[in-house]
Amino acid sequence: MRGLDFTNKRLIYILAEINHDIDLLYVIPCVYTRNLILNHLRDRISQLEAATEAVNQPVQLQTNTLPSKVTAAPAQGTITTVQQMAQGNERVLTLQELSGFDGKNGRPAYVSVGGTVYDVTNNAAWAAATHFGLAAGRDLTGEFNSCHAGQPILNNLKVVGRLV
Amino acid sequence: MNDTSSTCPEYNNRLKMAANLVDKVRTKYRNAALRKRCLIWLELTGCSGNIISLLDGSNPDFKYLISHMTYFIYNNSLSVSEGENAMKQLFSVLGSDYILAVEGAVATRNNGLYNIIGRMNGKPVTALEAVKKLGEKAAHVIAVGACATHGGVSAAKPNPAGCVSVQSVLNRKVIKLPGCPCHPDWFMGTLAHILLYGEPALDSSDRPLLFYSTLIHDRCPRRSYFDMGIFAKKPGDKTCMFKLGCRGPVTRTDCPTRQWNKYVNWPIEDDTPCIGCAQFGFPDAMEPFISYNITREVRK
Fold first, then answer.
1. If exposure means fewest CB atoms within 10 Å of the residue's CB, which of A21, A69, B124, B273 is most exposed?
2. Between A and B, how many CB-CB pairs are < 8 A?
3. Is residue A91 located within the same domain as residue A163?
4. pTM above 0.80, yes or no
5. Which residue of B244, B285, B298 is in closest CB contact with A128?
6. What are chain B's domains?
């Protein structure tokens, strides 16, 4: 979430600069300076695009964490909603299905944190599908939070689906 | 020293760091510009592996450490004195200035009775008692090796003696030199730095940055195989041993460049995966040391 706060601050900063540039454009008579400001404006817009992309990533993660809470209720309808929410090739896995992805005998290695399932098959810190005594194919939310809380390392992992 | 060290001037300098520091100590002693200090080497629950490793040190060698570099007051394996005399020699430093090196974990079960290091006035002296007494008064405490830094093999499950790290029983800064065993250069360099300038710069786990600042993975000669997704299927293959369970990506030491046994070789160069012996939590957290039923190979 620290990353999200940072991006929000950055967005506010960029927007303020854009507004300031526009105000300047109204009053600047010199063509040369006007072009400079327009250049600056274009630069800020590309920064804005980059920041928006960065914001989209954590937002997606946030929605990913929701289903685990929602599906705590046993209602069949809720599960259907969760499955509908899955986008593109994102998969929905149960704990039992997840346990099959233990990284053994050619199977990929998946772990789940906060309801999102990540692929750690070729993650350097997961040699032989184990990491500091933890095996792949499990929900490791508690273990992750006790060790890596506040670290943005999940963003570097490939998301394969979500846990229900 | 070896092929991997020849290209980067920074790493070449780092390799010579321990020797350079000791040379500086030597020069300063010659010019009487430095005070010689007492060193105590306390062995608790361990295998003597770290003192054996230190005896194997070559640049500088152990002889210089005990004869010139420090007043080497006590080590249970090397001391000439025996029995109560040895204990008296050990505790004679209390009240003076000394540096304490500790190898081995602290056995805490039954108030430390699982490890008696000697007898004083007819009473047994537990390792727990000795490390507390000497550790609190020392100018610097250096935990040498896996057991002293985090419990290591002595604290592995089921840990019948209730072994813990030196830090767990001392309420003070403990410099940590993990490794099973600790490389002679890591200890000699740290000690020389203390004699010359005091405590070296440490990371958040109190390991000297001089020796523990890079991951094995970052300087591994087989790193390009990892990046290309080409993995060894058995020990002996010359490619990346990640799928066999190599712990290089989570272990922070300079083994790939410094190497061992007078800078001759190290595990990965000799086709066995790193078992993470210098990482906190070893050995339990680094298991399994080797796996054959491996994950799929994905070429990027």
1. A69
2. 63
3. yes
4. no
5. B244
6. 3-210 (3.40.50.700), 216-286 (4.10.480.10)
